[in-house]
Amino acid sequence: QVHLQESGPGLVKPSETLSLTCTVSGGSINYYYWNWIRQPPEKGLEWIGYIYSTGTTNYNPSLKDRVTISVDTSKNQFSLRLSSVTAADTAVYYCARDGSGYQPWGQGTLVTVSS
Amino acid sequence: DIVMTQSPDSLAVSLGERATINCKSSQSVLYSSDNNNYLGWYQQKPGQPPKLLIYWASTRVSGVPDRFSGSGSGTDFTLTISSLQAEDVAVYYCHQYYNTPRTFGQGTKVEIK
What we know:
The complex is a heterodimer of chains A (115) and B (113). Chain A is mostly beta strands. Chain A has strands at residues 3-7, 11-12, 18-25, 33-39, 46-52, 57-59, 67-72, 77-82, 91-98, 102-105, 109-113.
C-alpha cells in the first residue's frame, strides 16, 4: 500500500522560499503523476501543480512564476519550492498521487509564513 | 480555468435521511474520445486529508460504502448520501481533472440536523 509523507519547515519568513519534500513508500514513484495541493486555514483546496516521474511538470498559472516541482526517482521523492512567500501562502500543504482522482494523499503539513 | 460551483454551501440532514450535493462546472468535463466525465468527489473530515469517494463522476472507490453515489454528465453533477450516518459529517468537494489547472468546488459542509 502506497504511503505519502510530507516533510519540511513549518515556519517560513516572508519573501523567503518554502521547500517541502514528499516521500513515497510502499510503491514506486515511476509511471505516475505526483501533485502538490494546498489548503489555507478554514478554506478550500487549491491545486499547485504536478510532476510526472520523468520530470514533466504542469503548474497552476496563479503560482507559476514562483513554483518549482522536482522529482528524485532514486530516493522515491518529489519536492516543492515556492519562492517569495507572503502570509497568503500560509496553508496545509498536501502531496497526492494522480490517477483518475487523487489517492492516496499525505497527511499534510502546515506551513506558516511569518516573521 | 474551469470553475466548479457547489450547492448548497452547507446542509443539515437527519440521521438516516438523504443528503444531496450539487456541483456545476463552467464548461463540460466530458471527454468525447473516451466518454468519461473527469469529475471526482472527496470527503474531508477535520484534521484529515481529503479522501477520494467517487471518480469518473459515478465510480465508487473500493471500500466506500454504497450509500454514497455520484451521478451527472457534462456540466452538472450530484453526490448523494442515501442514508446519512453520523460518520458522514464532513466537508465534501467536487474536483475536475479534465484539464489544467485542476480545480475544486468551494466545498459543502454536511451536518446532522
